[in-house]
Amino acid sequence: MLPIGKWLFAGVMLLYNSHLYAQIRLPRLVRDSMVLQRDVPATIWGWAGANEKLTIQFNNKRFKTKAGADGKWRVQLPPTAAGGPYEIKLAASNAITLREVLFGDVWFCSGQSNMVHQMELHNITYANDIAAANYPHIRQFWIPTLANLEGPQTDLPAGNWKPATSTDVLKFSAVAYFFARDIYEKYHVPIGIINASVGGTPAEAWMSEAGLNAFETILKTLQQNKDTAWVRETNKAAAAAPRRYTSPDLGMTGSKKWLDSSYIPEGWRTIHVPGYWEDQGIRDLDGVVWYRREIDIPESMAGKAASVFLGRIVDADELYINGKLVGNTTYQYPQRRYNVPASLLKSGKNVFVVRVTNNSGKGGFVPDKPYCIFSGNDTVDLKGTWYYKVGAVSEPLKPGTGVAAINAQNQPAALFNAMVAPVIPYAIKGILWYQGEANTSRAAEYAKIMSALILDWRKQFNQPKLPFLYVQLPGFMDYNYQPAQSQWAQLREAQLQILQVPHTAMAVAIDLGEWNDIHPDNKKEVGLRLSLAARKMVYGENIVASGPLFQSVTRDSNRLVILFKETGSGLVTRDGGEPAELAIAGADKQFVWARASIEGNKLIVWNDSVPDPVYIRYAWADNPVNPNLYNKEGLPASPFRTDQ
After folding, report:
1. Is the whole model's pTM more than 0.85, yes or no?
2. Among 92, 155, 202, 475, which is least packed by CB within 10 angstroms?
């Protein structure tokens, strides 16, 4: 039995610890510098001790609430006009003061990598925008990549509200920033951006379990993923599965490494940069290829810091200059932009070596990208003839020997559980969505999935008319100069169909893509087109906010007459020429290119070799060559077809 003094001490410590546990705790999203939604009740929530009483002071008013038996509490602040900054004081067994709180419009931004892409990844294109960024009333809360297979989470592990100033704006989503900046400059109300987006993820990963009820196969996968033992064993088996054999890299295992500037190359062959090695005499090689070239550096650049642009490389690379590692990238998508330290470059010959690792498909340097080294006003072109030698070869993996691991972020509801559910109590103005690339192989079901996602999120946020603005996929991949089938075109068609859901708007981006980059550089125009949609649908401006959208087709002898919605001041072609990218077919659906003319707001389409036309397609390709149909307001027509 404890002496009375020790009993007393233990009781005091128990009381002390219970007070520590009972202190108010706020979700990560509710913190200093947050932007709360104006003109609607704004929910503040958190945790405290069981049945603990709390007092909240805001704008000279006092609100009282009480935590439940589970410690959860919430209070609604009254509708507040745009403005601030305000302080919100919370008091119970402890006190918290939230400072620099603004009221304005909060936009929830989600999707995959093109919504992720931050301003710093486009710091050359948008250098002036970054330098001029001084918008302390535009703020972003960046949600880190998180996934949970078991169920909705109640909080986020990290994150802060950051202002759009020249330093912090580098971490802003580029699309979201240009959208927010345009809205702010039009209406001068604070703008909050909550960014929850993850590259390469399918739409169903962003839906709740309840939202997936209509999708039996997807729901079955979700239920299976809840078995943590099964997931663990599957991933364990994947880790233990046979790996393709890759020979030792001769460039790293010889008596002198090939990256060494004193290495004397023997048996190296010529190759052109940029370009893929499969297009230059190397057949179906996965593995490691070394590139080497002596670059003449002028005296004016010697000893100075410099920057190297190596376009994009498939898949991974390491750049060595004069034997020193300058930079490396581990996957294919980022632009290669490396800083060269002062004193490394010398006047005259400098040895540039690039070690390229390719895992599948074509390997090498992506064409039509910048390849140069520059310092100050001096630039040296890196394109042209290099020398190459194969360092390692990966053998093909035998069919049936691989075991797929479970990538949590691609699983049904996993991103909703971890990145959306913790935000749900927060009032928002609307949603911006840029996603679809990961669903192109299942385009036929995409419209159903996205319609369900929109309804699901509206139910979750308890806003039945919550505006949902999204981006239609731009052009990507090789140009095709003949009418052809296209999964990307089918996905765009599904996105067009989503407009049937009320309170949605679509930004057409068919003209903003790059054939060699799934992450096109022109993020500003995407953001501005989303802003146009918001200004019309959400803010009530009487403006033209969309390009032409297919409405109907009728037949007049051997010609098809197309009517459009959203023609604005009239149909035009961007280049002043004849409307292009139109294909026509009879009942046999054998499409051929068509002639076309604009008559008022009608498009007349024909091909004399098709006397009985039935079907029409416009810009139906992964990457149409010249989708030049616009309205006079400068907004492009959406691709479409009539032969579903």
Report:
1. yes
2. 155
